[in-house]
Amino acid sequence: MGLRDFFIQLSENQLLNSSAQKYGLRLGAQSVVAGTNISEAMANIKQLNAKGISCTVDNLGEFVFDEAEATKAKEEILKVIEAIHNEGVDAHISLKPSQLGLDIDIDFCYDNLREIVEHASKYGIFVNFDMENYDRLQPSFDMLEELAKTFDNVGTVIQAYFFRAKEDIEKFKDFRLRIVKGAYKENASVAFQDQLEIDINFIKLIEYHLLNGKFTSIATHDHNIIEHVKRFVKDYNIPHDQFEFQMLYGFRKDLQLKLANEGYNFCVYVPYGKDWYGYFMRRLAERPQNLNLVTKQVFTKKTNTILAVAAGAFILGRLTKKKK
Ligand code: FDA
User: Fold this and answer.
1) Domain limits, the chain
2) Which residues have a catalytic role annotated?
3) For 266-301, what is each residue's pLDDT tens digit?
4) What is residue 324's predicted lDDT score, i.e. its pLDDT?
5) Could you give the CA distance from residue 237 to residue 319 in angstroms, rounded to a whole number?
6) Residue 44 DSSP symbol
7) Which of 9, 107, 129, 266 lies at 20 to 30 Å from 257 by C-alpha?
8) Residue 44 contacts by C-beta under 8 Å, 6 or more apart in sequence?
């Protein structure tokens, strides 16, 4: 098992997730999570806006299995929309359908999404549906399609590692889309496993949507892809207001600023909330070098406790699996 699988498994561990919530931002998560509440997130957004960078705000939330939790998440997102409007910041919403109840009941989830999208549309705020693992893909797309019949402030994500991504991007060609490589562990029957194949598909999808004339968010920290896109938009005279680069909060900050200063639209994905653990583990899975973030932190007693529990739960998980 590689480090990627190790961290993905940790990200899926509910026990660790709830333990981490008790301790607040730890293990270096404070470098990549913009606070645990709306006012901390807003303060960080204002700082980014001051540098000419727009934001997409994500209220972090994992393992939502009951309606009360999903309703709480919806209420929080409605408050974020109010905050964006009232404080006049340059930001929109990113959300995960699972947080709004997708794993509980699709109609319940749809109603939650509809309320959010409707509220955001009153203020002209865009809402992006983040895409999660393969099993949640089709139901998420279905809800998006249904909402798009009434609202024009919705868009989604196309994950380049899926074989079906080309088909999906053609279907959603009239939408504002964020294109990414893909963050979850997917089966070889549905997704490319080879990094080069993913990168090639990623570029094809970006080019397709850019040539399509629809707004494209190119979400990557990969400087080679970014350089390719810069050349491509120049060669094809694609106007700067038709696309943006996106990166995650706290990653490659120098490059973020450089691109914004070069005159490209730049948007930072700003996650905040107490439920930071799963998000943080997926970031470590993508790039274990981010472990530097962890090792650079002062290791408190509490931090060591989390790590010890993490290692214990992981080993236990492996042993239980072997027994089965
Ligand atoms: P990748 O991790 O493949 O790295 C490629 C190369 O870039 C590295 O080899 C290195 O040279 C350089 N590099 C990367 N990170 C670096 C760093 N921190 N410092 C220095 N060099 C670095 N996924 C998903 O499944 N659903 C979603 O909805 C989203 N949403 C989303 C929004 C935004 C704004 C971003 C940036 C990403 C997502 N993702 C996502 C995650 C995405 O699918 C993907 O897993 C990560 O972005 C990692 O892939 P990259 O393209 O960034 O580069």
Assistant:
1) 34-275
2) 130, 178
3) 999 999 998 888 788 778 787 767 666 655 544 444
4) 36
5) 56
6) H
7) 129
8) 34, 35, 249, 270, 272
Whether the per-residue pLDDT at 17 is higher than 80: the answer is no
221 C-beta closer than 6 A to ligand 1: yes
d(CA 230, CA 106): 40
Q: Is the CB of 74 under 6 A from ligand 1?
A: no
Residue 122 C-alpha to ligand 1 middle, in angstroms?
32
| Residue among 287, 289, 290 to mutate when testing ligand 1 (max atoms within 8 A of CB) | 287
Residue identifier of the C-alpha nearest atom 2 of ligand 1: 286
- Pocket test of ligand 1: the residue of 181, 255, 290 to mutate, having most ligand atoms within 8 Å of its CB, is 181
For atom 1 of ligand 1, the residue with the nearest CA is 222
Query: Nearest 5 degrees, angle CA 79-CA 84-CA 89?
Result: 160
User: Which pLDDT belongs to residue 179?
Assistant: 98
Average pLDDT value for residue range 168-187: 96
* Residue 237 pLDDT greater than 80, yes or no: yes
CATH architecture for the domain at 34-275 = Alpha-Beta Barrel (3.20)
Query: For 33, which DSSP code?
Result: S
**Cα-to-centroid distance, 301 and ligand 1 (Å):** 31
Percentage above 90 pLDDT, the chain: 72
